[in-house]
Amino acid sequence: MITLPQLPFANTALAPIIESKTIDLHYGKHHQGYVNKLNELIKWTPFENSDLETIIASVDAWPIFNNAAQIRNHTFYRNSLRSALENNLPSDDFLRAIEQKRGSFDAFKQEFITKATNNFWSGRTWLAKTPHNELEIINTSNAGTPLRQETVIWNKDWIAYIPLFTIDVWEHAYYLDYQNRRPDYLTNIRSLINWSFAENNFSK
Ligand code: MN
Predict the structure, then answer these.
(1) 100: CA distance to ligand 1 center in Å?
(2) Pairing with 107, which of 5, 58, 88, 161 sits 20 to 30 Å away (CA)?
(3) pLDDT value of position 158
(4) Higher pLDDT, 50 or 150
(5) How far is CA 46 from the centre of its chain?
(6) Across residues 170-193, what is the average pLDDT?
(7) Ligand 1 centre and the CA of 164: distance in Å?
(8) From the CA of 103, how far away is ligand 1's center (Å)?
(9) Distance 64 CA to ligand 1 centre (A)
(10) How far is the CA of 170 from the centre of ligand 1 (A)?
(11) What's the gap in Å between 169 CA and the centre of ligand 1?
(12) How far is the CA of 96 from the centre of ligand 1 (A)?
C-alpha cells in the first residue's frame, strides 16, 4: 500500500508565485489520484507490498510504472521548492560548482529556463548529476524520471543520473496561476528553488 507523503509546507507557503488553489489541485487531486490508481493497479500483483523505488526500477507494466513514477516525481518536485527567498542562491561551494560547469550562475539560469520553456511535452526539467559529477539540465516527458533507463534510452544517450531538483512543466502545475505563460512561471519559480535539497542530493 502506497500512501501520499505529507505536503512539506502549508498550501499557502509558495504564494503568490504558486497559489494555494494550484497546490490544492496539484497535490490533493493529481498527486493523490496517482496514489489511488497505483494502489488499485498493484493489488494482487507481486508489487502489492513493494516500495515506490522498487516498483519504478523493476516493473514492466507501463500503467504501473507511470503511476509509481508520477508519485515519486511529484514528491521530488514538492521537495524541490520552499518559501520564496529574495536572493535565492545556492551555498558558496555549490554556486562555484555551477559557475564552473556553466560559465556563470546567470548562464545556468538562462539555460534552465530555455530548456524548460522548450520542453515540448508534458514533463519535467531537472538539474541532475552524472556519475562523473557533471551537472546536466535534462528534460523528461510524461512520467519520465532520470532514475530509470528506459526513459532516456528513448533519447539514445542513457546515463544513470542523480536528480538534484526538478520543475514540473505539465500544464496543471501552472495553468491556474499563469494560464499559457510558462516562461513567467519559470521566471518566478526561481526564488522558490530549495537549494538545500539540491545540494544534499548533490553530495550523495
Ligand atoms: Mn504535476
Answers:
(1) 31
(2) 161
(3) 54
(4) 50
(5) 27
(6) 96
(7) 17
(8) 31
(9) 17
(10) 6
(11) 7
(12) 31
Centroid of ligand 1 to alpha carbon of 91 (angstroms): 28
Q: Are 194 and 81 in contact (CB under 8 A)?
A: yes
With a cut of 90, say whether residue 51 has pLDDT above it.
Answer: yes
CA 87 to ligand 1 centroid distance, Å: 26
Assess contact for 65 and 72: CB atoms under 8 A: no
Cα torsion through 32, 163, 119, 187, rounded to 10: 90
Q: Per-residue pLDDT for 150 more than 50?
A: no
Separation of 31 CA from ligand 1 center, angstroms?
7
Give CA–CA dist 195/122, Å, rounded.
24
Instruction: Look up residue 49 and give its three cell numbers.
Output: 507490498
